[in-house]
Design a protein that fits this description.
Blueprint (H helix, E strand, L loop, with lengths): L6 E2 L5 H11 L3 E5 L7 E6 H9 L27 H11 L3 E5 L5 E6 H7 L2 H12 L22 H21 L1
Parallel strand pairs: 1-2
Antiparallel strand pairs: 2-3, 4-5
Helix pairs in contact: 3-5
Length: about 180
């Protein structure tokens, strides 16, 4: 995994996320509740910015990250194998998987590039093929009620996230 993660907060603007991607040369930014206590709330990618801002002709300085981000990204734990990450990428058709600790705090990210550096070329090619297949309509969600990203119970963190999202929606309504 890459431990030098780039993060932003849900209330940051799309412009901020885009600038972070440009500055750090990455295609995704992890969205955390607080930079000092990185509870994972989501992930925003360059594709999210392109489709949600550019294609929608929206102002990147006014649209907020929480409006564009994937709210419950596929994650893994630090003790998961690279093969486990590869399988999750294939099953969920994602190119990046945040690594969270037992309490849902970000500690790294595993990317398709990490696979390319550590797995045989044939396997990397197969993973790229699986990730790139057209999405099946109505794909099943990768989380369960009352479970945090990696399938472990974290009720307190879930409550914090739900309350934060409710507050952000209220703030957005006031601004509009």
């Amino acid at each position: 995994m890459t431990t030098g993660i780039v993060c932003c907060m849900p209330g940051d603007t799309a412009q901020t996320a885009a600038n972070l991607m440009k500055q750090h040369g990455v295609g995704a930014v992890l969205v955390v509740s607080e930079l000092s206590d990185p509870l994972l709330e989501g992930i925003i990618t360059d594709r999210d910015l392109c489709c949600g801002v550019v294609a929608g002709a929206k102002d990147a300085n006014t649209i907020q990250v929480f409006e564009l981000m994937t709210r419950v990204p596929v994650t893994c734990l630090p003790e998961d194998s690279l093969e486990d990450c590869e399988q999750r990428m294939q099953e969920n058709q994602v190119r990046r998987i945040p690594v969270v600790n037992d309490s849902g705090r970000c500690i790294g990210i595993v990317t398709q590039a990490d696979l390319a550096l550590h797995l045989p070329a044939a396997r990397v090619g197969e993973t790229a093929r699986e990730i790139s297949k057209p999405s099946a309509p109505g794909m099943r969600l990768h989380f369960e009620k009352d479970h945090f990203y990696c399938g472990l119970l974290h009720e307190e963190e879930q409550i914090v996230l739900l309350n934060r999202r409710r507050d952000m929606r209220r703030e957005a309504e006031v601004v509009q």
